[in-house]
Amino acid sequence: MSPSKNTPIKRASRYAKVAGRVARVGAGVALSHLQGGAGQTGRDAALWRGALGGLKGPLMKVAQLMASIPDFLPREYAAELATLQSDAPSMGWPFVRRRMAAELGPDWQKRFQAFERKAAAAASLGQVHRATSLSGEALACKLQYPDMDSVVEADLRQLGLILGLFERFDGSVETAEAFEEIADRLREELDYGREARNMQLYATMLADVQGVHVPRFYPDLSTDHLLTMQWLDGERLQEAAESRGLEDRNAIAMNMFRAWYAPFYLYGVIHGDPHLGNYTVRADNSINLMDFGCVRVFKPELVQAVIMMFFALRDNNQEQIVEAYRLWGFESLSKEMVEVLTIWARFIYAPLLEDRVRLIEETNATAYGRETAAKVHRELKKLGSVSIPREFVMIDRASIGLGGVFLRLRAEINWFRLFNELVDGFDVDALAKRQHDAGA
Asked: How far from the centroid of its chain's Cα atoms is residue 217's Cα?
């Protein structure tokens, strides 16, 4: 098993690379504001994108995550950061061979019937190679890039600086809690042992849920930086969305809904990264889940608050809306702040509040979402900063990400009934017991 690469020298090297860019842009933004350029949010955001755009890896993943939380950043910042791509180049074969030897020993190739030299996929933290076990089973070997501990810690340190500058010059959102949540989740993604446990947890939670497949884990071929699992064949979702008819697209959407929300409403567990590369679609419209790094376990009371908000919005019950925010982790909210935050809540919950077949969004979704987020941001800026609870980050991320998937599928579903079937008879104590029994 290879040792940790999180060394002071490697961290310092990454700090220098990122800090130089951050410092230059921070100075430019500060000068702009000192000279009275407070209205140049778009220019400031473009400067940040220019500074970060050449730094592939974890910081890009974080930037995209922040951009996916519409009320976390002004729309100009979100639009610029959303263009960043986590397109780290894959490691060549000599590098892969050395890395595999460090993980499984010098005779590692004898432990496979076949191992493809070219990566099947590459992302911000690692790459995946197809392989065949000695008994002939198709495998996916997820190999982490070297020195990622150092890279992540350096990037997080600079992210704190970036958010501090943003908070100083904008003032609408307090970022400390959201930053801690992002940092914890990103560190967890480096822990392949934890991801393996998440994979097995999902196999348990989805055992009785039709239309979803979880790969089998191979512990004998895995280490802290190598995760080997069953290879699951399937079609990319975008291709399925373009080639399949409405009935098929609806079936895919319902399977996606259950795959994400059955674990949440039954066990208090959610996958916080519904990225298109994290699943594929089979010929029968069932889906394959293939990445379990970004998984969050919540207290049962938080799930109760999410359900409470649905009924409060449905019934326009202001007292329940306030209580739901309190259980969610929002503190010291004024009446005016509750009203502003509820603008966003109604946007997110809207498809669930109508008992009819409909698209997930029937307006110009991108423009409407942007306008809604911008309105929330403007009003919060007038009222004073609000602290975003840690628990809000991943739930909002999953909601927005899945909404994007359903938009691509152009699915026409009664979301109201799908949601109510899932939460019917909800009992917070029963959820706590299921969560405990599953080892979440």
From this structure: 22
User: Could you give the 3-state DSSP secondary structure of residue 121?
Assistant: strand
DSSP state of 217: B
The string of pLDDT tens digits covering residues 344-384 is 899 899 999 999 999 988 776 556 666 777 788 788 878 87
> What range does the domain containing 342 cover?
172-196+236-440
8 A C-beta contact, residue 264 and residue 270: yes
Q: Verify that 59 and 176 share a domain, yes or no.
A: no
Please check whether residues 60 and 184 belong to one and the same domain: no
Global pTM value: 0.82
Listed in order, strand segments (DSSP E) in 343-403 are 386-387
CA gap 417, 349 in Å, rounded:
13
Q: Nearest Cα to 81, choosing from 54, 56, 45, 55?
A: 45
Q: Name the 3-class secondary structure at 383.
A: helix
**Residues near 324 by beta carbon (within 8 Å), at least 6 away in sequence:** 305, 306, 308, 309, 312
Q: How far apart are CA 420 and CA 63, in angstroms?
A: 34
Supply the Cα-derived Rg of the chain in whole angstroms: 22
Residue ranges in 141-245 assigned as alpha helix (H): 148-170, 176-189, 192-205, 237-243
Answer whether residue 74 shows pLDDT above 70. Answer: no
Q: What is the dihedral of CA 95, 98, 99, 100, to 10 degrees?
A: 120
Which run of H or E residues covers position 46?
Answer: helix 41-52
Upper half-sphere CA count for residue 374 (Cβ side, 13 Å): 12
Whether residues 153 and 258 share a domain: the answer is no
Q: What type of residue sits at position 286?
A: S
Q: Is residue 399 part of a domain?
A: yes
The residue count for the chain: 440
Q: How many domains does the chain have?
A: 2
For 388, phi then psi, to 5°, come to -85, 115
